[in-house]
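WARN  no MSA supplied for this record, continuing single-sequence
INFO  ligand: adenosine-5'-triphosphate
INFO  echoing inputs
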Amino acid sequence: MAVTRTFSIIKPDATRRNLTGAVTKMLEDAGLRVIASKRIQMTREQAEGFYAVHKERPFFGDLVTFMTSGPVVVQVLEGEDAVARNRKVMGATNPSDAEEGTIRKTYAESIEANSVHGSDSEENAATEIDFFFDKDEIVG
Ligand code: ATP
Ligand code: MG
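INFO  complex generated
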């Protein structure tokens, strides 16, 4: 299987509980390599732009408020079949539906405060990586 890239966010509920290392370890143990990483405070404009596909959903306003409620860690991950591999270790959106051993089952607080984001396709991964990283920030 080909080595590909995906985009990850460690969300404010996880950074607030000092889980950046614990979440990253689960990503690494799943066969993903962090090839770029930075801790940022998202602006409202950034969060609205990033989640624009959800702008008609009833939870959009709350989601933007949550994603700007504290620092996040944005990461580029690389590995074999990275998008699917990352989605598998993340677990279902709602932690009560997530499998044992996944990040969301282990750490998520709620369907909204669910600790991590991961791209859902290679195409979206490329767009999301470009949204947060300059080429020279991805060092391998
Ligand atoms: P992500 O895009 O963050 O990786 P996902 O692909 O599993 O998660 P999406 O359906 O894309 O889930 O929703 C994006 C995010 O919006 C979710 O991760 C969660 O934080 C929030 N969200 C989704 N559904 C709900 C809901 N019903 N109520 C509140 N928040 C929600
Ligand atoms: Mg999604």
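The chain has a mean pLDDT of 98.
INFO  checksum written, moving to next record
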